[in-house]
């Protein structure tokens, strides 16, 4: 398969935490952030510092919205993935594995569409 994106970030978003998995040609890095404002800003800076051109995350409840809004201001391409589709992939049982699977998916194929319209 052709490389789609070389610097990607997959986010597994929850009420109190966000797991970020960034994959670049230099390797993979995984970090967990709280959902407090200062930590979300640190997440945004982490993503920018790694040169990520695209971020994908589960559209879990409304927890994704503050992250989307922050990243949108930075002109980073954001893809929202239906959480139901993520849960149907066998073998992944942890937040870290979910974030890793999302980011790995971006390196080999594009998500068919953004699953969320701005409202």
TrEMBL record:
- What GO molecular functions are on record for this protein? DNA binding; transposase activity
Q: What is one GO biological process annotated to this record? A: DNA transposition
Name a Pfam family for this protein: DEDD_Tnp_IS110
Q: Which InterPro entries match?
A: Transp_IS110-like_N, Transpos_IS110
According to the entry, every stretch annotated as the Transposase IS110-like N-terminal domain falls at 9-106
What's the name of the protein?
Transposase IS116/IS110/IS902 family protein
Species whose genome carries this gene: Thermoanaerobacter kivui
